[in-house]
What we know:
By secondary structure, this protein is an alpha/beta fold. The chain has helices at 21-31, 55-69, 84-97, 122-126, 129-138, 144-150, 155-166, 208-211, 265-275, 280-299, 377-381; strands at 3-7, 41-43, 75-81, 106-113, 176-182, 216-221, 231-238, 243-247, 302-307, 310-316, 320-329, 338-344, 358-363, 370-376, 386-388, 391-397, 406-412, 419-420, 424-426, 440-448, 451-452.
Amino acid sequence: MTTLVFVHGWxxxxxxxxxxxxxxLQQQAAAQGMGLRIADLWLSKYxxxxxxxxxxxxxxAFDHALRDLHLTGPSxxxxxxxxxxxxxxxxxxxQRDRPGAYSTIKLTHLVMLAPANFGxxxxxxxxxxxxxxxxxxxxxxxxxxxxxxxxxxxxxxxSLNVDHIHGPDPAARGQFLxxxxxxxxxxxxxxxxxxxxxxxxxxxxxxxxxxxxxxxxAVLSLxxxxxxxxxxxxxxxxxxxxxxxxxxxxxxxxxAQGIMTAAPAATVDAVLRCLxxxxxxxxxxxxxxxxxENAQRDADKVELExxxxxxxxxxxxxxxxxxxxxxxxxxxEPLLDTRFLFxxxxxPNPDWMPHGFMQDRQANSRTPNVISFFLNHALxxxxxxxxxxxNSRRTLRPVADGRRPYAARIQPTILAGLVHHxxxxxxxxxxxxxxxxxxxxxxxDVVLPRKVxxxxxxxxxxxxxxxxxxxxxxxxxx
Length: 478
């Protein structure tokens, strides 16, 4: 078997984070006739807890560390956890874009456990006071620059992911990517001050949809110059297909349920299935198998959490969607004072959206025109009655009717002046639901026309002094 490199996640300060996974992989690989020796295994130790370190620094250092391995073969495989996933993906992009500056060693298999590919809602909190206090008690810094990358909707993460969506299929060049995600938080690790640690649709740290590379780039913009400036057409681009697997009962971390630290049998089995992929045909077959297994998990989606002497707390593990909206105009200027509203039905009405469809929203702290919406895909699609698994006659949730088509309204707050924007809405022929996928992320660029009036620049033959501080905006420039 090829050399196997393990890469941990953000804020790790000890290689104990890898838990029993390397040893169990070696044992199971031997039992299945896959040669995996200790000499083939390497554990990464990288510093993310220094505020000066950037993702680009880690990429350069990772490349340098690989050169020092003096591998006997021309390729290697990598197993990552959390931030390790996007780190290695950034290295792959740097290797592709700057072939003379980076090692030519080939990565054949990238198996990402709970990867923060689109970031984490927790990153914004890690940059705040509570995160700094925790780091101070641990004797380290928060790792501000890495947290900048990890914040939902960051420029850096969107650059990598939109590049992936529009890029070539890695499997076509013999490079196989896999994303494995735990399907629930570890309830024993719930932080009562921070509800994100118990958020349904996440593994306690990263939202499931944010791990999945089967993503979509959507654009809402004018169809053509001179078209109705109030109507925005929807255009979609889908990412190359990537193997994605839900690991039932696993969480982001922890010795009991951690997808890596606890090394549950389901994780070990899934990783070895990934490493056995040898070509595009076997990769496609594994994608199909994972999809079927995910569908079985989604059908068995009720979790009853024990609450001492009280009735159990009900968690319905519906598929969620992460929608990252970037609001800008045709000149690339961010729209900071603009509202994005969802609407349902015909004609579209915001009051008709399904109850509970939006679980959370968070604006990026550095680019506040980028807003991440965490949506319940099952409620938007419509869902059957959910029964109590211990008593099928008891209804936990009645039938949820989908209310398609879904639309969006964009409402700028500045509607007049020399330069401004006008309210707009999606084309009635489009359904915004088409841009969403279960357990998937969609990056939605909303591009409004920029209304520039004639009064911005005029010529005159009047040589008498003329004050134009309060000029009439005049008509729009065509």
